[in-house]
Amino acid sequence: MIESFPNALANSLWQGGLLSLAVWFVLRHLTRYSAATRLAIWQVTLAVVLLLPALRQLPHLSPFETPTPVARVAVATESSPAEPLPTAVPRPLIEVDHHGPVELFAPLAATLAFFQLLRLALAYLVLTWWKRKSHPAPLTLPMPLSRSVSVRLSPRIGMPMALGYLRPAILLPESFAAGLTPEQLRLVLLHESAHLERRDDWTTLAERLLRAVFFIHPAVYFIGRQLDREREMACDDWVVDHSGSTKPYAEALARVAELTSLGPAPLLAAGAGRRKEIFARLEALLDGARNRMPAASAPLVLGAGVLLLLAVSQSTPYSHLFGFGTYNTTSVISDPNGRREFKVRGDIDFTDDDQDVAFMSPGSKLVIATGDRFATRQVELEANAHGEITRLYFSSGVRRTYDAEAQRLLAHELSSWLRERETNLSARLNRWINAGGVAGGVECALREIRTVGNAHVKRLYLEELLTVSTLSEEQLRRVLKVAAELNSDSDKRQFFDHTARHFRALDAPLLAFVDSLHSDRDRRHILSQLATDLPASALPRLLRSVSQLSSDDDKTTLLLEIPPTPDWFKATNSIHSDGDRRRLLSAVLTAPSVDPATVALALDSAALLNSDGDKATLLLNAAPGLKAFDASVRVLATMHSDADRARAIQELLGPSAASQAALLPQLARITSDGDKARVLTRAAELFIDEAPVRNPYFTALNSIHSSGDRQRVLLALLSRPVLTPQTVEAITRAALQIPDDGDRQRVHNAIAARR
Fold first, then answer.
1. What is the helix, strand, coil percentage profile of the chain, to 5?
2. CB 324 within 8 A of CB 104
3. Count of beta carbons in the 10 Å neighbourhood of residue 735
4. Are the beta carbons of 188 and 249 closer than 8 angstroms?
5. Rounded to an integer, what distance in angstroms lies between the CA atom of residue 264 and that of residue 573?
6. Could you tell me the CA-to-CA distances from 128 to 125, 160, 169, 554 in Å, in that order?
7. What is the pLDDT of residue 514?
């Protein structure tokens, strides 16, 4: 059996953990292996763990087993063919399709790996900076090396370290120059030289990169810790081998532990270790029974690699015991009748009636299990390497003969499950249509489709039904009702996009289908298309659907595409955002040709806004097309801001008596003398000397308390070339009410000058 790569990758997490623990257990009890050999074995273990997913893709070849062909069973063998159970399936309450673990955790793993790689990049920059800021040490290497290495001192580090790659260097803390004897310095330099001579800088970099990429893999992290420990001990053995003595080197290590400052070891520096790790190395160094060979044993490492690969090759059959299953698809359905589970691996073809298996590829398997509170039943079909199918039947966990009862269970559950899948969908639908006969084929198909719980598959059935059959208007209505039952707005939207041409004459049912959607985005998408396709008679119903949207932005976008009508303004009034409503009403009022009735409706809608600024803006937009001012007055009456009301009145005032007679009374609602005076000064330029204008003009004028503002308005009015005696008399009476003598006298002088 060949395991799928996603399952192999997921299973490698726990399998790699078990493998690394097994290696750790063996090496812990076999102390005769040298540190260099143990290091090499751990490196091989790391390679095998990382290659586990690829290794498990190889065919399973066991030297201890011989495949035995099993006779193919095509039908039930112990009874005559049984009648299939009814195919009606209740709508499931819960249905879960399990995806592979790799698909679920891949984004998290990729994110963690990115941050770990970023951490490595920062560590490399720090080491480069340390090397650049250090200065040469007056020390020489204790022995010639195959690489050109410099020795440097740095005040920024607290432990000795070997920095490698293209220009390797050994960095020592400045305190070591005075804190260590020359012999101890020589041994410390010899240890760091061992790292560079063994190319530990490059192997450490490779291991750190692997640990960063596979950060989520626990075995990789565990093996990395073992590699760091064994690498240091292997270098200790190298030092002892080249120096010829253990005790002086142990004393040097103890002194280094005293001088080493606390803190985490740099990620990419070889030879850098914490104080606790140095003490562990001292204990191993003083162990006289330990193997101190500085080089790895090639036969032992090769043997360990072969054993690891053999263990991996034999572990595939046991993946299902502890890890993720080897099934491509696992579906669990729970409904009032109990729980049903379907598991599929490999390629399987089913019979035309969806009640049996016609073909299974080698290694494929099908498991169908049903159960309730009282009993469980399970059917397993598996193909061997030759494609021969073995059929097993279990009842309440006990294996039974695969008989007619097992065949009925397979037929019933298989047909129920397959109707929820896209496989052979067209053939299945045609079978349903044919089962209903000439007259009732469509009704029979709709009954079957209605039992499908998977919204995506139900949509495909409905679309296929519209493709293969010519439906009556009543049948189209029924199709829309079934489509409205889809529990996915995305599927409803796709259904409309694919089939809208079939329903152009069904305004009300189509809009009822739209109202069944919950997503504003999807409803707007459909309504936008219907706004251009539906006849004008259906527009009121469409606008009611628009009003039911919860998003003001979606409503605004749609209404901008629809010509304004009384129902259009009702939909506009359902928008809560003043900004969106102002945008809509501005589009209406600034249109090239807009009739007075539409202007009146737009202004009535503007009166419902909360913002006086938006109201004033809309009044100014409406000004060029205004013929009557009743609607404008209704908007002005709802405004609270003196500045906005004054601005609107001033801009709306025209040279006609109708505009002045309608708008000037609104000045009485303004409390600010300055705003009143500004509007009245503008009105004086357009003043129509008639009673309907004169009376509200002087009513507003006499409500001004400020002497200066009243004087300014009266002088502006007196500047007109012609005034009736009634207006001059009204000006004279108004001047007498000016409290300031100087302002009053200036007005009297202007009146006398006119005479």
1. 60, 10, 30
2. no
3. 21
4. no
5. 66
6. 5, 15, 11, 56
7. 92
Count Cβ atoms below 10 Å from residue 729 Cβ, excluding itself.
Answer: 12
- Three-state DSSP at 89 gives coil
Distance CA 459, CA 490 (A): 10
Say if CB 112 and CB 439 are below 8 A apart.
Answer: no
How is residue 196 written in tokens? 């560079």
**Angle subtended by helix axes 200-213 and 101-133, to nearest 10:** 140
Tokens found for residue 255: 């002194």
Distance CA 231, CA 271 (A): 9
Question: Could you write out the three-class secondary structure of 275-312?
Answer: HHHHHHHHHHHCCCCCCCCCCCCHHHHHHHHHHHHHHH
> What is the C-alpha to C-alpha distance for residues 66 and 661, in angstroms, rounded to an integer?
108
Stretch 162-183: mean pLDDT? 84
Q: Which two tokens stand for residue 141?
A: 């290497």
Q: Which strand (E) or helix (H) includes residue 174? A: helix 174-179
Please count the other Cβ atoms lying within 10 Å of the Cβ belonging to residue 394: 16
- The edge-to-edge listing of strands for the beta sheet with 135-136 is 135-136, 150-154, 169-173, 161-163
Q: Give the mean pLDDT of 581-606.
A: 90
Q: What pLDDT, on a 0 to 100 scale, did the predictor assign at position 545?
A: 92
Higher pLDDT, 87 or 16: 16
Per the prediction, the chain carries an average pLDDT of 82
Summarize the confidence of residues 510-520 as an average pLDDT: 92
Q: Is 56 exposed, middle or buried (0-12, 13-18, 19+ CB in 10 A)?
A: buried
Helix or strand holding residue 425 (H, E): helix 425-435
CB 675, CB 641: distance < 8 Å: no
What integer is the mean pLDDT of 511-533? 91
| Between 566 and 142, the higher pLDDT residue | 566
Two structure tokens written together for 271: 């030879």
Q: At what angle do helices 691-702 and 673-685 cross, to 10 degrees?
A: 150
> What residues contact 515, with CB distance under 8 A and at least 6 apart?
545, 548
**Bridge-based pairing state of the strands 169-173 and 348-350:** unpaired
Amino acid at residue number 128: T
Q: How far apart are CA 25 and CA 34, in angstroms?
A: 16
Tokens of 307: 């054993």
Pairing mode of beta strands 365-371, 338-345: antiparallel
Residue 617 tokens, joined? 């803006």
pLDDT digits (tens, 9 = 90+) for 380-410: 999 988 889 999 999 988 899 999 999 999 9
Number of C-alpha atoms within 13 angstroms, CB side, residue 401?
A: 6
Three-class SS of residue 590?
coil
